[in-house]
Amino acid sequence: MDAADVEGDLVEILFTEAEIQDKLAEMAARIRADYEGEDLLLVGVLRGAVMVMADLSRALDRHLEMDWMAVSSYGSGTKSSGVVRILKDLDTDISGRNVLIVDEIIDTGLTLSWLVSNLSSRNPRSVRVATLLRKPEAGKVDLDVAYVGWDIPDEFVVGYGLDFAERYRNLRDVGTLAPHVYS
Ligand code: 5GP
Ligand code: MG
Ligand code: MG
Question: In this entry, which stretches build a coiled coil (predicted)?
Fold first, then answer.
């Protein structure tokens, strides 16, 4: 399978590689200003946030540390339930640290609101959330998201870390899948 075949499975490209990089540069400028002169620990949520973490951390262009968590969110079908299990915890003691959780998309927001309260209980100096994409349903949950790339409609997107059955994460763009992929 070559890259062209993967991109060929998209029916519509929502955000190109260049648009994503521009957006991350904007977000990075805000984050840099907000944390100027302060400690910063980025916490990426595996696996989807890998691409955002790689590009946002380099766009930040300042001293920072990175750590990772893997969580599974049980739910019926494709929706989160808010019942979260930690599959891989942080290797870092976050007490006294400024934690910025980095994610690629927020749908119901249940996973992240659980993660924010879990990390907040570890006595960090601060906990904030940055996400590239956010869907409308996230507004229903009590979750303060400090940095959002784009608000998008409620449709299933892939690429740039986002998967369908673990594929398409390596697409450079974000888009919607063609119907033939599902069938
Ligand atoms: P929630 O915010 O509902 O707790 O869960 C968010 C997680 O669901 C994301 O980290 C991602 O793994 C998955 N997800 C939500 N919406 C989409 C989508 O449109 N496309 C893909 N590929 N994953 C999604
Ligand atoms: Mg994620
Ligand atoms: Mg997934």
Answer: none
Task: Write down the catalytic residue from 55, 93, 107, 144.
Answer: 107
107 is catalytic: yes
Instruction: Work out which ligand 1 atom sits closest to the CA atom of 107.
Output: 2
Query: Which numbered atom of ligand 1 lies nearest the CA of 109?
Result: 2
User: By the 8 A CB rule, do 147 and 31 touch?
Assistant: yes
pLDDT below 70 — which residues of the chain?
Answer: 1-5, 75-79
17-153: which CATH number, 3.40.50.620, 3.40.50.2020, 3.40.50.2300, 2.60.40.10?
Answer: 3.40.50.2020
| Residue pLDDT, tens place only, 120-164 | 999 999 999 999 999 999 888 999 999 999 999 999 999 999 999
Angstrom distance (rounded) from CA 152 to CA 107: 10
DSSP three-state, residue 54: helix
Give strand pairing partners of 136. Answer: none
10 in Cβ contact with 153 (< 8 Å): no
Say whether the peptide bond before residue 169 is cis (omega within 30 degrees of 0). Answer: no
